[in-house]
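Q: Could you predict the 3D structure of 4-hydroxy-tetrahydrodipicolinate synthase?
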Amino acid sequence: MFQGSMVALVTPMRADGAVDEDSLRKLVDFHVENGTDAIVAVGTTGESSTLDEREHCEVIRMVVEQVAGKLPVIAGTGANCTREAIALTRCAMEAGADACLLVTPYYNKPTQEGLYLHYKAIAEAVPIPQILYNVPGRTACDMLPETVERLSHISNIVGIKEATGNLDRGRRILELCGERLDLYSGDDATAMELILLGAKGNVSVTANVAPKQMHELCAAATAGDRETATAINDRLMPLHKKLFVEANPIPVKWALYEMGLIPPGIRLPLTFLSEPNRPVVREAMQAAGIL
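A: Sure. Here are the predicted structure tokens for 4-hydroxy-tetrahydrodipicolinate synthase:
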């Protein structure tokens, strides 16, 4: 249903932490102009965990409005409370999002059966296309391929963002789910290899600062052009790695601030990028031709 470079969009904030609507709209235009294939609004990189429900829905609405149908918009609507996830997913559908991305419930550590029933309940409550999102490094919850296979039989569950960076895990999901479910990478450093294996694209942090290059990388990998994809990926690899030198989205928001695209705001408990790591990120940006 979706493919290519799908930016995990930051949520621009002013120094006081308030959402900056003007910068958000300009950032959307930046991605439309630079070839990004889809926008993921209010995911992990969009600081979903510190936006209240009203802000969450409003950011989705603004992104959909600004995109104006030029790109698909996928709204992050996951929560560790099933009722809250249903409410956010319904809000995203009413705002006009094309699909929703739902992270596994964090902190409360459900069983595999609990995960299955959680996603089944959301899919049955809200008919919008839904993409599962597995990132155990942040959630302390790992959705196993066998659970993904069970969920792939639900008609409006259309994909999974697999962010373990484990290519064997990706292979297993492809084997089990076949054409019923699209696989997306959630790890920039291994995205090229996963797409070459059969994934449909990458939900990318790097695309925030290098949208054109990430679009070209994903297009080449999708076409099976390993040589071109590798050349682009090698140049971007420092960014793939150094944008995680502190917790995402701290480094990428600083990089966008350096590029003059957003103000310096970020919400506690996250903080502005520390002084010692700024040259590290700047060097990666220079290596990628960003600065």
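Q: Anything worth pointing out?
A: The CA atoms of residues 73 and 277 lie 32 Å apart.
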